[in-house]
Structure formats: C-alpha cells, structure tokens
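Suppose you are handed a protein chain with no further information: no name, no annotation, nothing but its sequence. What can you learn? This example shows the usual starting point.
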Amino acid sequence: MPKKRFTSQYSKPPSTVHPSLNSTATSSSSSNHNDVHPTVNDLISSLRRSSISSKPAAATVTTPTLPPQIRHLLSQPETPLPRARNRRRFDANGRRIPPGPAPPRSWLEGSRYDPLAGRRSEEKMLPMDVRHLPGLPAEERKGRSLQDTCLREMARQWEFVREYERNNLADLPSGLRMKLLSCIAVYGPDEGVGFEGLKNILILPPLEDGEKPDFEPGERNDKIFRIDLSGAIGTSVSFKQLIELIQKPASPTDINLQELSWDDTSLPQSLSPPIPNLTHLSLSHPAFSISWPRLLSFAKHVPTLTHLSLAFWPVPSLTPNSRTAVIQSAHGQEIQYGGTNLYSHSLDDDFAEAADVLRRLADRLHGLEYLDVTGCTHWLRALRWMGSSTERYVDWGNQWTKLRVLKAHSGIELTEQSEFCDVARFVMAHREATITEEMLRWWMRRNKILGRPVSWIDVQKDDWEVYKHLWHGGGKEDERKRNALESLGNKDFKGENLWSRPFVLDPLASQDDGAVERMSFWDQ
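A reasonable first move is to predict its three-dimensional structure. Written in structure tokens, the prediction is:
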C-alpha cells in the first residue's frame, strides 16, 4: 500500500525587503509589468512593505534611580511617578471587577455547547404587570397616557438613560421615580435596574467641585415608600447594597473637635438614610442563587415593612446547596448535613426547615399586611405545616396578626396549546391555595375560642373559570385537560383538618378501558 505524502505548509510569512532598498528594483521592473493586474497576494505584500517605517525606532531611555539622600546631595531631580492605571475597579452595578485583563466577549456570551445556558435564559421570568405590587396611584387611562409611554421607553433604553441622564433622574417627582422602577422591572433589561442605576434614581451625584448638596438625600425621598426590585435582587442589586440605602449611616469616630465651629451650619454627614420611609418592597423573580439567610438578615433593618412580594422564590432553606451532603459520625454513621434532603418534601412530608425559616421571617416582619407568594406552590405547604411539639412553625395566632392579603397565584397562564403537565400544575396550585385558605379559617376559629383578636385574611387565587372555554375539541388529550380543570369545582378535598395532610390530584379521567389514573403533584 503506497504511503501517503503530505505537502508541508509553512505559516511563516515570506521575508520582505525594506522599501528604501527595493525602490530601484521596483522602478526598473514596473515598465515590463504594466499590463499585468496585481493579485490579492501582491496587494497584501505591498501593504506589508508600506507599513514598515523608514524611521529608526526610538531607543528606550532608562532613568537610573538613587536613594533620596544621595539624590539631594547630587541635586538630581525627583524620580517621576509611575503612570496611573485608569482601569475601572467596579462595573456599572457596583460589583468589584476581578483583577487581570478583561475577559473575551466569547467567555461572556457563553458557550453554544452548554445545554443549560439557553435553558437558563428561557427560564428567566419577569413580572408582566407594572402594578403587581400595590402602592401606585390609580389611573384613568390605564397606561395609555404620554407619561406612561415615556416611562416605558426609558425602561427599554435603560442602559443608555442610566449613563447619560444620571444627573437628572433624582430630580423627577417621587411618584414618577417609583413608577419608573416598576417599568424597568417589566420592560427593562433582564438583570434589572442595577445598583448604580438605583442610586442615580434616589441620590443626586456630588457636585463638580466635590462638595455635597446642602440638603439630605432623605429629604428628597421622604415621599418614596415603594421600591420595586423585581428581577434585580441577587442579580444586579445585593442585600448588602440595599441595606446601605435603608440603614441610618453610622456616626464617624474620627471627628476632630478643634476643627468644629459654632458658625458652621453644614452637617458632617447625613442624619437619615436615602430611603427613610420604605413600606412596600418587591423582591420577586430573584436570581437562582438567592439566599434566604441574607433575606432574614435584611429583614431586621426594615421592621416597618407592610407590603412584601416574594414571588417565584425557592424553597425556604438555610443550606440550599447541602441537600445531598452528609457527614461521617465518630461511629461511622452518615448523618444528613442540612435540614432538607431530596426526599423531605415528596416522601417524608417534612417541611420543618422551611417552616422554621418562615417563622423567623414572621418574627422580623411582624407588621406585614400584604404577602405575595405567587409561583411558590412547591413550598406553600410550609405556611400551614405543624410538626411535633418540639418543632417550630408559623404560629398564625401570634405571628402576622396584621396580615390582610395573601396572594397565592400559580404564575401559570393557560392557552389552547398548553401541555397537560401545565394544566396539572395549575390545578395543584389552585388546590394548595384553597387548602391554605381553609387552614387560615381554622386558625380564626381557634383564636376566637381562645379569646384572641380575629382578623380575616383574604387569600387571592387564580380564577380557573376564565379557562373553561379551552379544550373543547374532540381529542382525548383535550378532554383530559378539561376534566382536570373542571375538577376544581369539586370541593371534596376540603374539610376539617384536611389541610394538614398531603393530597394527590385524583381522579383524572382516562379513556382507556375506563381506568382511573392516579397522579400526584410530584409525578407531574
């Protein structure tokens, strides 16, 4: 069998002659080749030759350095300072940039071979309505005014507005600034408003000469009580940065008493936080790595909060990354590291850790009147979980006594093309909300018997009857979806203390020999 022969390819470019040495040869041969058109390689070679400079390169001058004492004796000039590095150490959101050169654009965009990259971008959900959090004034034109159109356009171009209008955003009226934050959450970028953008909306930038304004930031924001950080919390705004805007600044310890004067009317620092009267806060649609312990630490700084949105938050847990972690005991036995494992909710019916986290949150936000847990059906049972006498849970008789509205929507919008699994999730979410409502009624009757104050809590659920016109075709799959939806009209799952036990979606009609399919929520 003959051997394969390969032609060696050299990547080294051919050597070129300096233009000063090649001028005579070029002029003599140009008359003979006037009729020949230059090729692409000839043009590239000529560009390479023309790019070579005929001037010699400047020699690098190295200035020797001397000790300061010898330099003064010899009357030598001072050593010049090194050139300042103008690289920014913080990005647009206030986060510290890692050292080293900037990463390539391909690294930032992600690999096309990563199967989870596209899924994460598709699963990134944002609020659909500007008024998902109460607090905005009522409108007559319902978003069709010129003002609303301008705010939506500012939200769509937020990256440009944040940079070029940062000196003017804080001058807007308080109502417009609160509404602008909600427009950014709905129509703005996926990462949200950003910490620098939030500061530009709330705080005026320093003056050109470095002086501070005569008024405090809290004086301009005393009418701002509603902050919408949907989609931004955990992504472009952290809890630590948010605490800086709501916490009263600490008093300085290095005050020189000799520099103080009775004639000085200016204050050395602000006496109030930038947001002094925060009562409405939306933390919905957080990042995938959101932390419940950080929320508990943040809740200590906002005891006056009355309206809170935790829509689409994960299961309450103190160690969410330790579900599969175990530790080895001295006797060789494996012990679960965290408070929740992979089977705690599905098989063991154990919501002890989630209920304890919610109990801690209720202790810190005792004045809460509105709580939004839309899209949290998978841990809604933790609100009504009651374990043994030694385990801690939310005591609705002593905690959240001022709560008036509990919004427990499914976060699912059904269409004609919806799959059966989406319909089953919608049905289970509606049943979870209904059973939670029964649990709250049980607590009301219990408080009345014990002589405690009784308050009604309105549990807001999805209106399933708006989807009754769907799936009226003749197919078996359409009938299956319709039967699952119409099962919400049957209240057989309600009753005395039925909310304390797990339940399944049963029955689901099937057309195969009259069999009845049993399908639990976790199988969906």
